[in-house]
Amino acid sequence: MWIAAAVGSALFAGLTAILAKCGIKRTGSDVATALRTVVVAVFSWVMVLIVGSGNTIAELSPRSLLFLALSGLATGASWLCYFKALSLGDVNRVVPIDKSSIILTVLLAIICFGETERLAVKLTCTAVLAAGIFLMVEKKSGEEKSARSGWLVYAVLSALFAALTSILAKVGISGVESNLATALRTVVVLIMAWSMVFIKGEGAGLKSIDKRELLFIALSGLATGCSWLCYYYAIQNGIVSIVVPIDKLSIVVTVLFSYIVFKEKLSRKSLLGLCMMVAAAVGMAVFC
Predict the structure, then answer these.
(1) What angle do CA 218, 21, 211 make, to 5 degrees?
(2) Helix (H) and strand (E) counts for the chain?
C-alpha cells in the first residue's frame, strides 16, 4: 500500500506545479502560496475528521510535535521559494532543480535512519539522478537570462528545504496517524505563509486577484492536499529512500502537462536527462 501511496503522491504533485503556474501569472507568489495553503489545511482537517484521529492530539509526545512543526517550517520555506521560482522561470527548468532534493534526502536517510540495504544500488541511482537533473537544466543566454536568473537561487533553496522536510517528517510522524500529522504541519505552513504575506505588505492585493487564477490556486491546493496525504502515509509506512524517488517521478506528469498547457518543449538533452531521472527512480524503487 505504501508503494501505491507514493505513486499517488507523484501524480498529484505533478499536477500541483502546472495548476500553480496557471495561478501565478499575475498573482504574487507569496499570496498564491498563502491562499493554496488555506485549501490544503481545510482539506487535511476534513480528512482528520473523516478518519476520526483528531481526539489523539492530546496523546502526541512533545518530540513528535516539535519535529512536525520543524517539518512544517521547512515545507513553508520550500513552498515560498518554489512558487517564487515558478513565477520567474519555466516549469521545465524549475521542477528538475526542485526534484534534486531527492539526492540530499536519500543521503540523509542513509545516515539518519540507517537505510543501507543495497547501498551500492541506491548510490548509483542517486548519481544517475544527479546527472539527469544536470542535463535537464538548460542555460539560456541574452536578455532573458539576465532578467530571470533569480529563479535558479529560489529553486535550489526549495530543494534544500524540501529535503529537510522529508527527514524531519519521518521523525515526527512516528506513532502519529498520517492524516493528523499532515494536518498539524499544515497549520505551521499556513501561519508561516500568511506571515510572509503581511510582512511584505502584500495583503492589499487579495481584493484584486483574478477569479480564474484563484480557481487554479484552489485546484493546486487540492492537488497538494491529496499528494501530501499519500506522501506522508508512504513515509510513515515505507522506506524514505524508496518513497522519495517514486514521489519525484511527478516530474513526468509535470513535463507532459507543461508541454500541453504552456507549449514548453524539451530539447534532446533535456529529454535524455528526464529519461535518466525516471530510470534511476524506478531502479531504486524496484531493486532496493
Answers:
(1) 45
(2) 13, 0
pLDDT digits (tens, 9 = 90+) for 135-176: 877 655 444 444 456 888 898 899 999 889 888 888 888 788
Q: Which three cell numbers stand for residue 192?
A: 508561516
SS3 of residue 202 by DSSP: coil
Phi, psi of 26 (to 5 degrees): -120, -20
Closest CA to 248 of 264, 269, 231: 231
DSSP 42: H
| pLDDT value of residue 32 | 86
Over the stretch 75-110, which tens digit does the pLDDT of each residue have?
A: 889 988 988 888 888 777 787 888 788 788 888 888
Across 34-48, average pLDDT: 92
**Rounded to two decimals, what is the model's pTM?**
0.73
Instruction: Provide the pLDDT for residue 272.
Output: 92
119 Cβ contact partners less than 8 Å away, ≥ 6 residues apart: 110
